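User: Structure with iron/sulfur cluster, tokens only please.
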Amino acid sequence: MAEPKPDISAILQRLREGYPNATYELDWQTPEQMLVATTLAAQCTDERVNRVTKTLFVKYPSPQAFAQADLDELANELKPTGFFKQKARAVQTINRALVQRFGDKVPTTMRELTSIKGIARKTANVVLNCCFDLPTGIIVDTHVARVSQRMGLSRQKDPEKIEADLMRQVPKDVWTFWGPAMVLVGRYVCTAKDPGCDRCHFLEQCPRKDVSGPRPAKVTLPPPRVVTAVSPRTTAGATSPAGAAATAPAVTPKAATPKAATTTAKAATSPSSPTASAATALDPWVEALASEIDEPYFLELLDFVERERAEHQVFPPREQVFSAYVHTPLSAVKVLVLGQDPYHDDDQAHGLSFSVGPDVKVPPSLRNIYKELHGDLGLQPPKHGHLVKWAQQGVMLLNTVLTVRAHQAGSHQGHGWERFTDATIKAVSQRSEHVVFVLWGKPAQKKKKLIDGRKHTILEANHPSPLSASKGFFGSKPFSAINAALRSKGQAEIDWRL
Ligand code: SF4
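Assistant:
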């Protein structure tokens, strides 16, 4: 039986009742400021961005000022927003484009705005919808994507495809209201982990797709949520399609729904996004990987992982995604052992290929590595599978994909990690004098083309998994071969004892 079509006019009416002056919760006074604020909001809460821009916009009052800023000083100002070095570069690149191509002003077409490096459709829609009231499209961020799926408005996962679905169903004259309003729904009611169907304006219309638990028998609606961000729209009064902000009861957003406020407060203080710690994790590598980190695909990749985390369990934990980079800075890499996917069972993956947490059972591939370690150097297999000691000596234990959905091997392949880790391998090859690259199995061996074989040693063998270890891994004696290669170049050997 065909699914009933969503009742868009009923949803819109409820949306107007519940979110009368919906707009973005970023503070801004000019479209140029909104563009900067939106760029800073990637992987950061709006509350934190507002704290930073309060002084930032005083120090840098115009696109000219951002364009001419000292990059290190600007990065320092942006530190609390995470990924501050790449955000500083992005902000400067964008503002230089405004100065050089658009007379210090934000252009007002989607085509012009997205022609600036670093600006994708979502950011362009935020600025054009919220500052100019231009219906160039519908804002689709993580929240709008999730709510649209649960409400049966789209089955797509890709934000641009979700936007296309919404644009087909929602009348164009309300696009600039719909996006910001749905952001608020997703942020305060239909949250990723705790959909508040019992206080949701749309319970009657919503099929609650993929939401567990029984449908609530009754709804207790909170008072209308009024956006209090500082902007010409909110301070000038009602400009939303609802036209009701001026007469809406003065409800403090935080006080309106205590549960949502608690959720929001937690989100602001907990590592709810690839955090500053992840940014710091990559820090020693940033210069070498800057051209990748600056590409829109990288932030889109982090966004994808965050969307996955909102709906599923993802390994490794957020703060361990870049562990291989933390434990082995670029200047310290002597050996690079390439794995594929992180382990996908509970508590195993912690960001180093083949390695597991100290109290986790040793997985079969690592058991075979230990067998070979014994056969090669006579070392007794340790009782644990925690390889940090190797990483700290310069053995970079890198997977080609850095995250995975729990119990679904390969589920994060093809989303950008391969490009990022290819760049990592190339950076090691180009910037180091001599490294031993260890390529076990065919997928790892395909990366050989990224490595300069004239100055580095490449060791190849079958993969240590139980399926292939006996076909060429056992007996390959990689540990003594690595140390021999290091010795031959006057480098200290690795102490393989764990
Ligand atoms: S009814 Fe539940 S699932 Fe549907 S939009 Fe509201 S909170 Fe989300």
